[in-house]
Amino acid sequence: MNLDFTPAEEAFRREVRAFFRNDYPAAVVEKMRRGDPITRADQEQAQRALHARGWLAYAWPAPFGPGWTAMQRHIFEEEGELAGMAPLSPTSLFYIGPILCRFGTEEQQREWLPAILESRTFWAQGYSEPEAGSDLASLRMTAVREGDHYVLDGTKLWTSYADYADWIFCLVRTSREARKQDGLSLICCDLRTPGISVQPIPTMGGEAHLNRVTFDKARVPASGLIGEEGKGWFYANALLQNERLSYAHIGRKKADLAELRRAGSGDDAFAARLAATEIDLAMLEMSVLRALAGEMTPQAVSALKIRFTEAAQAVTELQRLHAASFAADASGVSGKAARAYLSERAGTIYGGTSEIQKTIIWRHLASPH
């Protein structure tokens, strides 16, 4: 693909920069600069500013989103992260949103998509379970059809953002089949439903928003079923491709590396590691553009997920090496680096471990073509 920026793309970059300079909430940018935790209220304020501009649903296909090119999406994400844009709600905007656009009924789209765009509802993702993490198809949570409802029983674990979400989409077992992937369905539930309880899980990073969600004979409307019953594995895999691409955060990594370069260290070995990481990031950026343009297979996206998360860990390791007062201060720049270092340790686990991604790649390479 052609990686040169056109005059129109350069004009778009200037437009994005002007927006973040003039129209994006300054208080949110300052919290990002300090490394303070971003609350739901912060996300609502930031997302509404983007929605007012028509840019919040940039990852959604037309006509639901703005219909950006791969290069426009990349420019927006890079400039936004360089400017201090707060993380958007990933489960709402990058996971369930595109799935609803592609597979949801008109009624589901009318009910849920505007509420997501207006930041009235936030979503959580119910995939992993106590006995089903990397081997997701082994999940045990059941959904039994009773008239116009499903009765849900089971537990979801490591559920991100359920502590402040309004809705959750769950991969559940609706039948027992010889092939375990064939009996799964994707069902959306209101988290206020009787029988659903949320228990936060403390983490060493302090702000991971991980939770245990228990379903005890929770009755949810059958209208919450996405697509066809028994096709949940297909929808889940389509969603996981979006999830794995959402870990790129090229702009954020560039900003962190630029901060390290400005700070300097006077150490040749450190400077060499910094330069090598910058080169790796530049190569990764080219691959991201190819993936966004649809030029990559699911196996290649798995390889990218490995590289995204390893690159994030490499950046936080450089921050750790550079910060003499690294773990001694929980505020300011060193506190920001400390929290990033702790949270990125899990990067090679969530969204499918690196080992699982390598298995996906191996199966593709080993299969006859």
Automatic annotation (TrEMBL):
Protein name: Acyl-CoA dehydrogenase
Protein family: Belongs to the acyl-CoA dehydrogenase family.
Annotated Acyl-CoA oxidase/dehydrogenase middle domain residues: 124-217
GO molecular function, one term: oxidoreductase activity, acting on the CH-CH group of donors
Highest taxon above the source species: Bacteria
This protein's GO CC annotations: plasma membrane
Pfam families for the chain: Acyl-CoA_dh_1 (PF00441), Acyl-CoA_dh_M (PF02770), Acyl-CoA_dh_N (PF02771)
